[in-house]
Write a structure and sequence with these properties.
Structural class of chain B: alpha/beta
Structural class of chain A: mainly alpha
Distance between the termini of chain B: 19 Å
Oligomer: heterodimer
Strand content of chain B: 15-25%
Strand order of the largest sheet of chain A: 1-2
Number of helices of chain A: 30
Strand order of the largest sheet of chain B: 2-1-3-12-4-13
Distance between the termini of chain A: 55 Å
Shape of chain B: globular
Order of helices and strands of chain B: HHEHEHEHEEHEHEHEHEEEHHEHHEHH
């Protein structure tokens, strides 16, 4: 083991290999800064170039890219409230409020340091655990995986916000949308309406962008001004570093959790994100989570980078990638002639160590790069939002359609975005919604498989009992702590608002659950039992809530309407939604590229009141940028009616 | 269907004779210099088909006359149905767009999935790529070979982790049927890797892997005495018979195993179904296709290019981890594989439909 470790470090120490790693870090950084692209896009970008490289150099480059993408994607999460990748959403919950408070510098500095330490802790844990990782992972059966999914679901307790009932229903809505697509036990299509797009299930990246980023952009565009409410960024850099030192124990804890959960195949990065964030709320005293508590940022970012290291375990030793970027990494390895499998813990252990320590070194490189460039990037928060908004819209749309490269992605973005906007307004917490969504498939799959493999006796397996005990302990801790402060509320409990709009909105969950229930009735028993159970239980909660909102006394924790405090001079709640609808609608007519150009011209000139010169300048930057990225990633823009009738040359195609 | 796809075979058979001579001439006549070729892969980046295409990509650029740029465009959705539909609807027959299909593209087409809007008869095949697989069991079952089949048939609690009733894993499910095994099939596995994980955890006592995963992941287990291989699926020889897989010369092929266990050659509707699905899913798993109307010189340019690629020492040296020791084919042999892997007669389709309903309560279409 020591020999292999020394061999690996010696191999890595060559300037040429460090050079390739730095190149990977640079590309990963560039990709990471652009929201919603993530390591996946970066990896496909460098795939053609790794062909002629030696194994260690190529691996160093690939790893450098993956590792730094998880650090650099923090920029958009904190500065703009756009989740940098679908597996790091929780950062925005505290990071973005900090940026709005003018503490962007502090949030970024704390987050980068946490990322770096997380990555290093992950590497140390991996180095020690490599030899026992295989048996440990094999000890976790489908039964235990189901319990881990339950552990994730139990976080809804602390993520629910003011009204627990609303939190539960939000989670149920996520579960319901997560069940769209192929039923794991029978391969029947649920709620697909005969569409191929829906038969694959809804795509997490689109959903996350829609539910978090779109409502924020619309709200900011309406309020005008800048993201940061104070003009200068402050000397937060030092404060952020001090935060890390104060909360070193939290950093260590969340790094370890991230590294361990990341190593478990079949759980998914997004789940880890929320488990860690929930854990921080459960165990940290006097939290202001959701309102800009630096500990929320630290916890999530430390675990993110540790998780990327942990995710190497199933990828390298079992050939089972646990995320999209790991799948590409595995593909890259195959092209390099390296086969994942037990050999990497045996005869090629040196290669495994080279990969693990590439992560560590790349994390340090990436952190330095992020620190060096962040004062400049953080200035974005002091730019007038009118100029920023169209770029953010474009980036969110791009991130959404980069999944399937279809117009349907944009329609889904719009639909879920509208849902998110209304949930935000009426105080329905969005984190439980996402938790439900990401857990729907693993919960159903592992429950079904565990019962098939072990019968209901699976509940008495020791691993199951241990995880059950953990859930009880942490849920108990959570009850003693403050819940996630309602992100959408600025304190005070007077904004209960008028009855009518929220009473109308409350029908949406009821309809959704009814639709799931009815759809399930047409399926075979195994395809129907899980959705029926969930939808049935949720109907029992959501129907009374609907009646209470419609006929109960106004007040209490259930009623909430952020519009109650809206300033009339900001204009109508719906006004800026029109821009989003316009962009998506126009895309359906003339395709995204043209629609986006028209959107830029119109928005900058009319909504932002720019001069023609400025308008044209910014529009050209946006359009050229889009085309360059599309060219690099070999993608067509979503097509509209125009492209249906006319055969246009790329990029208009 | 059968009739239509026989036609290009005879045509190609005639043309194929002259291929060796004609190749250089056509290549000179046809030049792809300065062109960009789009290679549609209806699967996600990093998946098996994507890696397969990316492995060939630099070789294609190197060996094709004029050294064109080749880019891979991943069009995902519906387990490859979406990408294949788009290819069928939008592609111009100019040879500048090609597509790589896989078993998951062939299967829904063969089984008549209503979402399929493509027709293999409208395409010409440029290259065919085979793979194989090995079925293995837990050693505790005491089953070592065909002689122990009765023991396996009597075994209690046989379970198998499958990706779905109409996935690639229908092939082993049909094999269980032919072996008359009582196997409880558990769906919902996301990828073969998870199926193997369930085996390693002791949740399932029977599993299979495609060749490369078997070699890297399962062979170490076999050496440790934690898994016992029973047979390989085998490969299709030039005569169209299923014979031993050259990657696993010590293992019987599945038909060989059946014959040794039962004393007679397999036959009947279940066998026909198995054979067709096996060819479409393994023996002729991946095809490179263009619209049939693509000019013949352009098609032949590709065929000549693939011939040169297959002869490249670099290709031979590096193909191991991606393709295994299987011979990819072009020209006549590819036509044969294409015909075998993309045509299913109506009786067989009806039998599969009925079997899926009876066995899994799964309704096709």
């Amino acid at each position: 083991m020591v020999d292999a470790l020394l061999m690996a470090l010696t191999a890595l120490a060559s300037p040429e290999r460090l050079g390739y790693m730095a190149l990977g870090v640079l590309i990963g950084y560039a990709i990471g800064v652009l929201p919603a692209l993530g390591g996946l896009a970066g990896l496909s970008l460098v795939m053609p170039f790794i062909y002629g490289l030696d194994q260690v150099s190529a691996l160093a480059m690939l790893v450098g890219l993956v590792a730094v993408a998880a650090t650099a994607d923090t920029f958009s999460s904190i500065l703009m409230g756009i989740p940098g990748s679908s597996a790091s959403q929780a950062t925005i919950l505290d990071g973005f409020p900090m940026a709005r408070r003018g503490e962007a510098a502090r949030a970024l500095s704390a987050s980068f340091l946490a990322s770096m330490i997380g990555g290093l802790v992950g590497a140390v844990i991996l180095t020690g655990a490599v030899l026992i990782a295989r048996p440990l992972i094999l000890a976790l059966g489908t039964a235990e995986l189901f319990m881990l999914a339950l552990l994730g679901l139990s976080m809804v307790g602390v993520l629910a916000g003011k009204s627990f009932a609303k939190g539960l229903i939000a989670c149920g809505m996520g579960l319901a949308l997560g069940m769209v697509g192929t039923a794991p036990a029978t391969a029947e299509y649920r709620l697909d309406f005969g569409l191929i797009y829906l038969s694959d299930g809804l795509h997490l990246p689109v959903l996350v962008l829609a539910i978090f980023a779109l409502p924020e952009i619309i709200d900011l565009a309406r309020g005008g001004g800048t993201i940061s409410r104070s003009a200068d960024l402050g000397r937060g850099w030092i404060t952020g570093m001090r935060d890390i030192m104060t909360h070193w124990w939290l950093v260590l804890r969340t790094s370890s959790i991230g590294s361990v959960l990341g190593a478990i195949p079949g759980l998914g990065g997004s789940v880890t994100d929320w488990i860690v964030y929930g854990h921080a709320i459960q165990t940290e005293k006097n939290g202001q989570f959701g309102k800009g508590d630096v500990r929320g940022v630290i916890a999530v970012e430390a675990s993110n980078n540790a998780r990327e290291g942990g995710a190497l375990v199933p990828t390298l030793f079992f050939g089972i990638p646990s995320s999209g970027s790991m799948a590409v990494f595995l593909g890259g390895m195959t092209l390099l002639g390296i086969e994942a499998g037990p050999a990497l813990v045996g005869s090629r252990l040196d290669l495994t160590y080279a990969i693990i320590w590439s992560i560590a070194i790349a994390n340090v490189m990436g952190t330095l790069l992020c620190f060096a460039t962040s004062p400049l990037i953080a200035r974005l928060t002091t730019v007038r939002f009118g100029l920023l908004a169209p770029f953010m819209m474009m980036v969110v749309c791009f991130g959404a359609f980069n999944n399937n490269r279809e117009l349907a992605d944009l329609l889904l973005l719009l639909g879920i975005g509208l849902l998110g906007l209304l949930m935000r307004r009426f105080g329905w917490p969005r984190p439980p919604f996402v938790v439900g969504f990401v857990l729907a498939l693993p919960m159903e799959t592992y429950l079904y498989q565990a019962v098939q493999f072990y019968g209901w006796d699976f509940l008495t397996r020791p691993g199951v009992l241990i995880i059950a005990a953990l859930i009880v302990v942490f849920a108990g801790l959570g009850i003693r702590q403050r819940r996630l402060a309602d992100t959408e509320e600025d304190g005070g409990s007077t904004d209960t608002g008028r009855r009518q709009p929220q009473a109308i909105f409350a029908v949406i969950p009821v309809v959704l659950f009814a639709a799931v229930f009815i759809d399930a009735m047409g399926k075979s028993f195994l395809g129907a039992v899980f959705p029926m159970m969930i939808a049935g239980a949720m109907l029992l909660i959501s129907v009374p809530v609907f009646f209470k909102l419609n006929f109960g006394r106004v007040g209490g924790s259930l009623f909430h309407d952020a519009e109650a405090k809206a300033k009339p001079e900001d204009g109508s709640f719906w006004a800026h939604l029109g821009w989003v609808i316009g962009l998506v609608g126009l895309s359906a007519l003339v395709g995204f590229l043209l629609a986006n150009t028209i959107f830029f011209l119109a928005f900058l000139r009319h909504a932002a009141g720019c001069t023609w010169r400025m308008t044209l300048f910014l529009t050209s930057i946006a359009t050229i940028g889009l085309i360059v990225v599309a060219q690099l990633l070999t993608l067509d823009f979503p097509q509209g009616l125009l492209q249906h009738f006319f055969d246009l040359p790329w990029p208009l195609r | 269907m059968t009739k239509a796809s026989q036609f290009p075979i005879t045509r190609r058979a005639l043309g194929g004779l002259g291929l060796g001579l004609a190749a250089t001439g056509t290549a000179r006549a046809q030049d792809m210099a300065g062109k960009t070729i789009e290679w549609i892969i209806p699967f996600a980046v990093g998946g098996g088909s994507d890696v397969w295409a990316r492995f060939h990509l630099p070789l294609l650029q190197k060996h094709m006359a004029g050294n064109p740029t080749v880019v891979i465009r991943n069009v995902t959705g519906g387990g490859s149905i979406n990408g294949a539909n788009q290819f069928a609807q939008r592609t111009r027959p100019d040879g500048l767009t090609i597509m790589g299909t896989s078993g998951s593209t062939q299967f829904p087409y063969l089984m008549g999935d209503p979402r399929v809007r493509y027709d293999y008869r409208a395409w010409s095949v440029l290259m065919a790529s085979p793979t194989g697989g090995v079925l293995y069991v837990r050693p505790e079952l005491g089953v070592r070979g065909p002689a122990d089949l009765a023991k396996l048939q009597a075994a209690q609690g046989l379970k198998f982790g499958s990706q779905g009733p109409t996935s690639l894993d229908i092939v082993p499910a049909l094999a269980f049927e032919l072996m008359n095994l009582n196997v409880q099939i558990v769906f919902g596995m996301q990828g073969r890797g998870q199926g193997r994980l369930a085996f390693e955890r002791g949740e399932t006592p029977i599993d299979y892997q495609t060749s490369s995963a078997y070699t890297s992941q399962v062979l170490p287990l076999v050496r440790e005495g934690k898994a016992a291989p029973l047979f390989s699926y085998g490969i299709l020889n030039a005569a169209g018979d299923i014979v031993r897989d050259p990657n696993f010369p010590d293992l019987p092929s599945f038909p060989e195993f059946l014959k040794a266990a039962t004393g007679k050659d397999p036959s009947g509707p279940a066998w026909d179904a198995y054979r067709t699905m096996f060819v479409a899913g393994f023996a002729a798993q991946k095809f490179v296709v263009v619209p049939k109307e693509t000019p013949k010189p352009v098609q032949d340019l590709y065929r000549a290019t693939f011939t040169r690629i297959f002869a490249d020492p670099e290709y031979k040296e590096k193909r191991g981890t991606v393709i295994g020791e299987y011979d990819e084919v072009t020209g006549d042999a590819a036509e044969k594989a294409y015909a075998a892997g993309t045509v299913m007669n109506d009786a067989t389709r009806e039998w599969i439909k009925e079997w899926l309903l009876r066995r899994f309560n799964h309704r096709l279409g």
